[in-house]
Each structure stands twice: as structure tokens, then as C-alpha cells.
């Protein structure tokens, strides 16, 4: 049987954690295919097809009703400045897509009118930016072949916008558009193709006229998984992931007076990087966070890269603490308060992912001794975001209600620096390896005794909770094969963190089986196998692996 699982949202709760107090409000389903969009103390999300923003200290504000608009809401973006929250999104309806904008200028108490920025387009997403002078930019785009890009500029804090279509004639394709604003220009980095060439490019536009300023080919590249744009001392820069000579590389460019300077993060060569975040201080120090893996060696790990010379040299440090690399740490995000840096990521060392944090008080030069969890125990938490506002770090993530993973809560947590310091030195509970092995052997014995006795209730209960959450006992029992087990022996165990491998030898036979209309049997035979067990919440569970597809109900 090939297991195919669909994620279908159900009724959920929003949970807001502030210090020791927990306030719970009942709400509709959250669309967890979209990660939380966090800016300052505000988060933007989709709930039952409607678009909301919420402040950690206040209630939810409905920005747009999908049903009321008779459209699906896509690709929202959020920018917060002071008491103002600006939201842009795309609506997909019968007449094509629209890019829309709405603002609140009084901490969400009231909302302004809905502005149409683009109509009858194919764009699936929009990105909002704001410069130091308070000008707002909305960039909507259609990637791929026949690309479409529009820039929208507001010089009156979102009351009116000017639309500027970006010329893409001659572009065979365009992907990963990444805008960044400096004092006098907007740069749109991208991966594109023209005249048979594939390259990393940069289109630039004067501010505020938005007249085209340049269209540069920075480097030919055979692919780009992501493109990230930022500014160093008001100078545009870009970092992208590509491959060279069969190896993944992270490389980039920064603007100079006469052209572009190239740089590379050589310590990341060969890493399959999944997510990147960054911060640049006024003196030019750059701190880069990313997760990456090296196939065949380890799964996704979290790294910090720092440069004090505009990217020419980098010092890369792994910052997730771990004895074994068989589970995944990834999708890091960071927030900064002066010299203080807080990093959060999704971590699966306990099989069910939690949100873990690590801190530095000297701009990433050194890190506190270990990382530590910030989400609740025994919860399936994922996709963290973090910001800094009003003296505290605000963390948002999504959290499945149970192991079935059909309904998700949105969680926001406020952590002050002194609280984070205390958490960093709090001792976590650990079970000794000797005790873990003792529990594992007892669990494996119980499973195979159940198999010999055909005690399906016992063997079902020992399977991992992710499998049991999706497959009811009746379905499991109905799939029981004709095999009869006569004996077993545990030949050895190997424990790596919360994952273990049990070598087993079993004796079985199949007295009678009908194949293609013919009765046949399999005489007694002895086979060796290896079972995987997962240590979840203090108990070992046998990982269910489908014999035909090799798939399971959990990815860690």
C-alpha cells in the first residue's frame, strides 16, 4: 500500500504567549501552506480564506474577506512602521488577478479603503517595501516564461500609488525577483534568460521618477534556487544559490562606482542551502544565517556566516548544537537589537519539530553555549519568524493541533533579552543512553511478541503516532497478511539521538496464499531485517515504513 496523505485544515485556536500568561481565542482554520508574515509586533495570515492582521497585544483585524470578494487571496505582504500597518495581496477571480492594498494608521483600530494597484494580471504574489523616507513600494510579478513585473510607488504613505510597468521584452524567462531600495534607486535582482544566455541580472530605477536606470548582467549562471537582495551602507547587494562544476555555491555581488564586485561564501561550497536570512550593521558588518546539508553526510544544519570586509572574507560557524546529524535543523530566521542577535529555527531532534533559539550578544562573534526550545514540549511546531519591537523579540510560528497534521494553530510569543539569557542556561531533561537502550529493547521485544501472537492491538500501539493518526486500527488490522511468525531474535541495537536501529532475525512461513488464482505456500525461512524506532515523548515507537514505496508518515 502506498500512503498518500493530504493536509486539510480544520477548526483551530490561536495561542498568544506573553511571559507566564496564556490567552486563547477560538478562530477558524489557518492556511498553513503560507508561513506567518511578521513585521514588528504584527503578523499577517489567512484564516478560512480571509486575510487578517493581528498585533500580539491586541485582537485580529480582518483586512479582506475572500468570500465577500468572490476571490481567492494569494501572496500577501506586510510592512509595519510605528502605528501604521500596510498590507498588499493578490486576489484571483474570474476576471484575472488583482493586486490590492490597504492600510491602518491607528494600530489596527480602523482600516482605509482598498486600493487597486493592478488588474487583469497573472501575478500570484506581491512584495511590499518601505524606504527611510517613508515611501512605500509594491512589486508584483509573474515569473517564468513571458514574465510580467510592475512597480507601484506611493509617496504619501499609501494613500495613492503610481504604477510603473517594467519592460521585459526579450526576456525568455525571469524568476526569483528580489527588490531592494537605496536612497536614490530601486534595484530588482533576478535570474533570467535572454538571447540564449542564463544569468543573474539587476534592473535599476531612479527614485522617485522610477525611470529605468540600468539593466546589468552580473554573471552567467546555470540556475539559481533563490536570490536575496539587501543593502550594505546604502549600497545594493545580492546573494544567490547556484551550482558550479556539480557543486552548490553561495555567491553574490555588491555595487561599486564603476560596476559590480563579486564575492563568494567559500565555506558554504557543496552545501544544499534551503533558507537564508541576513542583517547588516551601519559599519558594514554582515551576518548571514542559512541552513544547508551535504548529501550523504548530514541533514540540514544551521550556520552563521559573518563578514567585516563587505563580503570579501567570511567566517562560517555551525550554531545548532547536536551530537548526531540524522535529524533536521533548518529554516533559520533572526532579529537584531543593537549588538544582540536572536536566531530561531525549526528543529526535529525530538522527531516532532520544535522551535529552538540561540543568542549572541556581540553581533554573532560568539554564541551562548547552547540552543534551547521556545515552543512547548510535545507540539509539532514549524516555520518560525522573528522580529524586534518595543524592547522585545516577537516570535511567530505555526503549530499542528495533533499528529494528524490537518489543523494548525498560529502562535506568537514575546521574549525579552533577559528572559532569553535565563532560557539559554536552563538545563534540559535528558535520559541516559543506558536507559534509552533498556527501554528500546523492551519495546522491540513487545512488538515481536505481539507479531507472534497476532496481537494487532499491541503492535498497532507500538507504531509511530504519525502513522496511527492517519491510519485507524481497523484499516491496519484489515491489512494483516497471511504470514505466521515462529521465532525472533534481537541481534543488536544502534541509538543515534532519538532515532534507533534494531537488527532483528525472524522465522516465518506462509501456510497458504492465493496468487493469480493459484494456491501456494512459503515454507519456514529465516530472514534478517532492520527496524527503525523513534524516541518520542519518552517512549520508543516503531517507525512505520511502507514496504512498497519506502514512505512513512513523518519527515524529520
Provide keyphrases for this structure.
55% strand, 4-stranded antiparallel sheet, globular, mainly beta, 5-stranded mixed sheet
Task: Describe the secondary structure blueprint for this structure.
Blueprint: E1 12-18, E2 21-27, E3 37-39, E4 42-47, E5 50-55, E6 60-64, H1 66-69, E7 72-81, E8 84-93, E9 96-104, E10 115-121, E11 125-130, E12 136-142, E13 148-154, E14 162-166, E15 171-181, E16 185-194, E17 197-206, E18 212-220, E19 226-232, E20 235-244, E21 247-256, E22 259-264, E23 272-280, E24 286-294, E25 298-307, E26 315-318, E27 329-337, E28 340-347, E29 354-360, E30 372-373, E31 380-389, E32 392-400, E33 408-415, H2 417-424, H3 433-453, H4 456-462, H5 465-470, H6 473-478, E34 484-496, E35 499-515, E36 518-536, E37 539-542
Parallel strand pairs: 1-33
Antiparallel strand pairs: 1-2, 3-4, 4-5, 5-6, 7-8, 8-9, 9-10, 11-12, 12-13, 13-14, 15-16, 16-17, 17-18, 19-20, 20-21, 21-22, 23-24, 24-25, 25-26, 27-28, 28-29, 29-30, 31-32, 32-33, 34-35, 35-36, 36-37
Helix pairs in contact: 3-4
Amino acid at each position: 500500500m502506498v500512503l498518500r496523505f493530504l493536509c486539510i485544515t480544520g477548526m483551530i485556536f490561536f495561542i498568544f504567549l506573553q511571559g507566564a500568561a496564556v490567552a486563547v481565542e477560538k478562530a477558524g482554520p489557518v492556511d498553513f501552506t503560507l508561513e506567518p508574515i511578521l513585521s514588528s509586533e504584527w503578523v499577517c495570515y489567512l484564516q478560512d480564506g480571509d486575510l487578517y492582521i493581528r498585533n500580539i497585544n491586541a485582537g485580529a483585524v480582518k483586512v479582506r474577506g475572500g468570500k465577500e470578494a468572490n476571490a481567492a487571496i494569494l501572496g500577501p505582504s506586510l510592512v509595519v512602521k510605528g502605528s501604521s500597518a500596510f498590507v498588499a495581496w493578490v486576489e484571483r477571480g474570474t476576471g484575472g488577478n488583482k493586486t490590492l492594498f490597504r492600510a491602518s494608521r491607528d494600530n489596527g483600530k480602523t482600516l482605509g479603503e482598498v486600493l487597486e494597484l493592478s488588474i487583469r494580471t497573472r501575478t500570484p504574489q506581491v512584495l511590499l517595501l518601505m524606504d527611510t523616507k517613508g515611501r512605500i513600494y509594491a512589486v508584483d510579478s509573474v515569473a517564468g516564461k513571458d514574465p510580467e513585473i510592475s512597480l507601484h510607488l506611493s509617496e504619501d504613505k499609501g494613500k495613492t500609488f503610481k504604477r510603473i510597468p517594467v519592460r521585459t521584452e526579450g526576456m525568455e524567462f525571469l524568476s526569483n525577483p528580489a527588490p531592494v531600495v537605496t536612497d536614490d534607486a530601486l534595484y530588482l535582482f533576478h535570474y533570467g534568460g535572454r538571447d540564449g544566455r542564463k544569468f543573474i541580472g539587476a534592473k535599476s530605477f531612479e527614485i522617485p521618477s522610477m525611470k529605468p536606470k540600468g539593466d546589468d548582467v552580473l554573471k552567467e549562471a546555470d540556475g539559481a534556487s533563490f536570490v536575496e537582495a539587501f543593502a550594505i551602507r546604502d549600497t545594493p547587494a545580492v546573494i544567490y544559490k547556484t551550482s558550479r562544476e556539480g557543486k552548490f555555491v553561495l555567491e553574490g555581488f555588491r555595487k561599486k562606482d564603476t560596476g559590480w564586485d563579486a564575492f563568494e561564501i567559500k565555506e558554504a561550497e557543496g552545501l544544499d542551502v534551503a533558507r537564508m536570512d541576513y542583517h547588516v550593521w551601519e559599519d558594514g558588518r554582515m551576518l548571514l544565517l542559512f541552513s544547508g546539508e551535504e548529501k550523504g553526510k548530514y541533514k540540514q544544519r544551521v550556520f552563521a556566516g559573518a563578514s567585516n570586509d563587505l563580503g570579501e572574507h567570511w567566517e562560517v560557524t555551525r550554531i545548532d548544537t547536536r551530537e548526531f546529524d540524522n535529524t533536521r535543523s533548518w529554516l533559520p530566521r533572526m532579529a537584531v537589537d543593537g549588538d544582540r542577535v536572536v536566531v530561531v529555527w525549526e528543529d526535529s531532534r525530538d522527531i516532532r519539530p520544535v522551535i529552538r533559539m540561540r543568542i549572541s550578544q556581540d553581533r554573532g562573534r560568539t554564541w551562548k553555549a547552547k540552543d534551547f526550545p521556545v515552543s512547548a514540549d510535545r507540539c509539532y511546531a514549524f516555520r518560525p519568524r522573528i522580529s524586534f519591537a518595543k524592547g522585545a523579540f516577537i516570535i511567530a510560528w505555526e503549530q499542528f493541533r495533533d499528529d494528524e497534521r490537518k489543523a494548525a494553530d498560529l502562535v506568537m510569543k514575546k521574549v525579552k533579552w533577559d528572559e532569553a539569557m535565563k532560557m539559554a542556561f536552563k538545563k534540559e531533561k535528558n535520559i541516559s543512553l543506558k536507559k534509552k537502550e533498556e527501554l528500546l529493547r523492551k519495546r522491540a521485544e513487545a512488538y515481536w511478541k505481539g507479531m507472534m501472537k497476532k496481537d494487532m492491538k499491541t503492535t498497532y500501539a507500538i507504531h509511530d503516532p504519525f502513522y496511527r493518526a492517519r491510519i485507524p486500527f481497523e484499516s491496519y488490522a484489515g491489512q494483516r497478511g497471511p504470514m505466521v511468525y515462529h521465532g525472533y531474535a534481537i541481534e543488536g541495537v544502534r541509538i543515534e539521538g532519538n532515532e534507533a536501529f534494531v537488527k532483528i532475525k525472524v522465522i516465518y512461513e506462509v501456510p497458504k496464499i492465493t496468487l493469480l488464482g493459484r494456491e501456494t505456500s512459503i515454507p519456514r525461512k529465516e530472514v534478517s531485517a532492520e527496524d527503525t524506532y523513534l524516541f518520542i515523548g519518552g517512549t520508543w515507537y516503531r517507525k512505520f515504513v511502507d514496504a512498497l514505496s519506502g514512505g512513512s508518515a513523518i519527515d524529520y
